[in-house]
Recover the amino acids of this structure.
């Protein structure tokens, strides 16, 4: 080994080596990035990234959006509800995300109703997979907030850790192998064994849950409601009975729902206790396909029958 | 700081640049930089525990200087004991205090005596097992007059805290690593490029393979009662590969980073699951620890120069200690004991059928498979949280039940994850076709290897919590 000062031949060699790697990565990386963005990420209707992209970039005058979390995604079948419905439910997300969607929806010049699935844990924050928001970064910065990273500006690298997720959604939609898919709605085809379901029920019975009222989120919701004349259906989809065993503050939830009467354009359908058979649940908080079909039919009838009145039951 | 964290991506190039701007003629300055960088690297996790490294460093430095100047056997022995008590005392307190108290309490309860718990809220300092063994080897080598002590405190402190291998090894020996701090180091382009290849290969092993397999493994081991024998078998195979890729990946990154700074650190893994005997397995798995126990426990206990029964007892004891080194839990003790038993069975068998005939390839494959199965069964104890969990795992594994649906087979993580896990294993097997120690003939091969590795890491890697299994030890 020779003693060479810095920035002489050895280091120039290192710089050349790194430069070559960068050039290859730029070529291959941009190719992969382009391929994913054009063919994979936005192709499946059930992927969160495609839903975010659709909400931000696509404007269909007759569309009726269904907003919410995974409970929205698995409970409402657009083909049953009507030809204009589209399910924007994002798994793992909470009120902050559907409020972001609602805000974007209300910026559009639509006059259609909006269906919001309201989780009884109330106004909490969770964004689900960050991968849902990266393709549309920085427009999604208000959702990502502190979870945003500087490398989200770098093509190819920004999807590190999320390629699998995009391909999974793509394959699921293309093959319909593991899921029932219906314009953004999705339900697992696999079912849990009775033992697995019982285990979930037992675990749920020991899990505390409560209605949370985060003022900032509630204020945002009320501001959005006040600023629109569009019809809002706020629906609470069914939960398994075990969910209510340690639900700490049902009265606070009820108080809040009652307060929504002051918004004339809001109709509340509280269907949390709707009698659903055990075999219609995927787990204690989500319906399976069979349950979703039945529930969607019920919601369709309620919407049709609810002309001009709130329905809390 | 952890290798697979964004902080390290800034830390490494910055340290590298400053280090070589200082230049090889300023060796002391380079050592000071390495020492400071190592303390920053460690302190990033919890700066308070830097004091433990400091105590260990200062104590062993001065004890060793005294050891070398003293002719009195009694004084030398006293100094050695002082070093042992200090190092093992710190390790014992932070790692084993609660374990021994809990075990004692459980034993007393069995005898009908109930005592109040004396357990303390102790945080295990990251890497304490590794650097304690490294400094101990220095003092022991000086006591046995195998090396002479350094008079350069900075070099010694940098040797103890050398950041590439500080928190998870390889456990280096003073006679190998310390002289490298005491001589000028030159930038070697070929070695630096090989170092980068090693770092990237290590990241592929960690982020693409180990972290992928961990998803299935965590799912299976997290709900053993809900699994069937097939998913438990897959879970066990996956864990065997996960821990291998996790740890050998770390060691590769450590070696690669060291190369960037002109250092050579020891090989820690050498395709262990291709071993055709359990003895061979331990010559290929965590080599730096196995050789440590051989040199500082087994040989001082008499090695193979004593009677056969004593040798066997010593071998068993070494493996028991090795198990305990891994963690303060009876599951690790049983894991070590199992490997001790495997060794004794193998050595007894080898003595019985000792023959010089050449092994057929079919026999070698059979032996390799047998060793792999034995190692996998022992991994159950390594991975579970408690002995009853291990018994449940083995019981359900033996039931021979099959999955009732795809979700049960894929351990509730989905078939795509299972598929990508198999892809990860495929990448591992394909990597075995690479030249030994990544010694590519042409520079362009390094360029291609690095580019492909980065593409694989970005597209197939898991962007999860940055950690390594062996950090807990």
């Amino acid at each position: 080994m020779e003693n060479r000062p810095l920035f002489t031949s050895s280091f120039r060699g290192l710089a050349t080596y790194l430069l070559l790697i960068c050039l290859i990565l730029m070529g291959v990386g941009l190719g992969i990035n382009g391929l994913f963005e054009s063919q994979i990420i936005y192709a499946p209707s059930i992927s969160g990234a495609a839903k975010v992209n659709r909400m931000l970039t696509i404007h269909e005058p007759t569309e009726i959006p269904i907003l919410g979390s995974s409970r929205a995604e698995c409970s409402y079948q657009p083909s049953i509800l009507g030809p204009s419905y589209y399910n924007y439910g994002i798994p793992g997300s909470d009120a902050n995300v559907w409020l972001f969607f609602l805000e974007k929806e209300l910026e559009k010049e639509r006059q259609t109703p909006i269906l919001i699935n309201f989780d009884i844990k109330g106004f909490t924050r969770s964004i689900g997979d960050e991968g849902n928001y990266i393709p549309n970064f920085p427009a999604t910065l208000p959702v990502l907030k502190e979870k945003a990273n500087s490398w989200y500006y770098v093509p190819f690298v920004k999807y590190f850790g999320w390629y699998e997720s995009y391909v999974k959604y793509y394959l699921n939609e293309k093959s319909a192998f593991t899921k029932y898919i219906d314009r953004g709605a999705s339900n697992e085809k696999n079912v849990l064994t009775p033992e697995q379901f019982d285990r979930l029920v037992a675990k749920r019975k020991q899990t505390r849950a409560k209605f949370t009222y985060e003022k900032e989120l509630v204020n945002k919701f009320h501001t959005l409601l006040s600023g629109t004349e569009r019809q809002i259906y706020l629906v609470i989809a069914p939960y398994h009975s075990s969910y209510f065993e340690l639900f700490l503050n049902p009265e606070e939830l009820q108080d809040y729902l009652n307060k929504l009467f002051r918004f004339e354009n809001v109709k509340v359908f509280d269907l949390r206790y709707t009698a659903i058979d055990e075999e219609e649940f995927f787990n204690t908080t989500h319906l399976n396909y069979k349950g979703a079909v039945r529930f969607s039919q019920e919601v369709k009838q309620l919407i049709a029958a609810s002309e001009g009145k709130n329905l809390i039951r | 700081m952890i290798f697979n964290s964004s902080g390290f991506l800034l830390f490494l190039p910055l340290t590298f640049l400053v280090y070589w701007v200082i230049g090889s003629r300023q060796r002391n300055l380079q050592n000071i930089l390495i020492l400071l960088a190592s303390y920053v690297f460690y302190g990033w996790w919890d700066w308070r525990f830097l004091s433990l490294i400091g105590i260990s460093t200062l104590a062993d430095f001065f004890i060793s200087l005294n050891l070398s100047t003293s002719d009195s056997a009694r004084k030398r022995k006293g100094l050695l004991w002082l070093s042992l008590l200090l190092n093992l005392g710190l390790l014992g307190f932070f790692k084993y205090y609660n374990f021994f108290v809990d075990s004692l309490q459980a034993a007393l309860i069995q005898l009908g005596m109930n005592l109040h718990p004396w357990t303390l809220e102790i945080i295990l300092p990251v890497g304490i097992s590794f650097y304690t063994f490294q400094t101990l080897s220095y003092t022991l080598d000086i006591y046995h007059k195998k090396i002479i002590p350094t008079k350069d405190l900075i070099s010694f402190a940098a040797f103890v805290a050398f950041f590439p291998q500080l928190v998870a090894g390889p456990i280096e020996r003073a006679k190998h690593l310390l002289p490298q701090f005491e001589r000028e180091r030159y930038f070697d382009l070929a070695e630096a490029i090989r170092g980068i290849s090693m770092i990237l290969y290590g990241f592929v092993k960690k982020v693409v393979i180990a972290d992928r397999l961990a998803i299935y493994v965590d799912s299976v081991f997290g709900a053993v009662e809900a699994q069937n024998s097939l998913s438990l078998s897959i879970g066990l195979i996956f864990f065997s590969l996960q821990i291998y890729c996790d740890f050998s990946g770390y060691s590769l990154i450590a070696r690669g980073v060291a190369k960037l700074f002109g250092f050579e650190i020891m090989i820690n893994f050498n395709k262990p699951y291709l071993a055709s005997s359990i003895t061979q397995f331990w010559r290929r798995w965590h080599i730096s620890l196995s050789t440590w126990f051989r040199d500082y426990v087994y040989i001082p206990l008499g090695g193979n120069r004593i009677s056969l029964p004593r040798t066997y007892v010593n071998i068993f004891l070494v493996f028991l200690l090795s198990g305990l080194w891994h963690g303060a839990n009876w599951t690790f003790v049983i894991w070590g004991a199992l490997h001790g038993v495997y060794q004794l069975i193998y050595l007894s068998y080898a003595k019985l059928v000792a023959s010089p005939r050449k092994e057929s390839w079919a026999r070698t494959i059979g032996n390799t498979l047998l060793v792999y199965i034995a190692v996998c069964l022992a991994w159950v104890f390594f991975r579970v949280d408690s002995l009853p969990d291990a018994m449940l795992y083995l019981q359900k594994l033996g039931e021979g039940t099959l999955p009732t649906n795809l979700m049960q087979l894929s351990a509730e993580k989905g078939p795509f994850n299972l598929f990508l896990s198999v892809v990860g294993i495929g990448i591992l097997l394909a990597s075995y076709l690479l030249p030994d120690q990544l010694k590519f003939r042409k520079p362009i091969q390094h360029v291609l290897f690095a580019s492909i590795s980065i593409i694989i890491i970005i597209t197939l890697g898991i962007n999860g919590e940055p950690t390594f299994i062996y950090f807990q030890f």
In short: Chain A touches chain B through 39 residues (CB under 8 Å). Residues 9-40 of chain A form the longest helix (32 residues). The two ends of chain A are 83 Å apart (CA to CA).
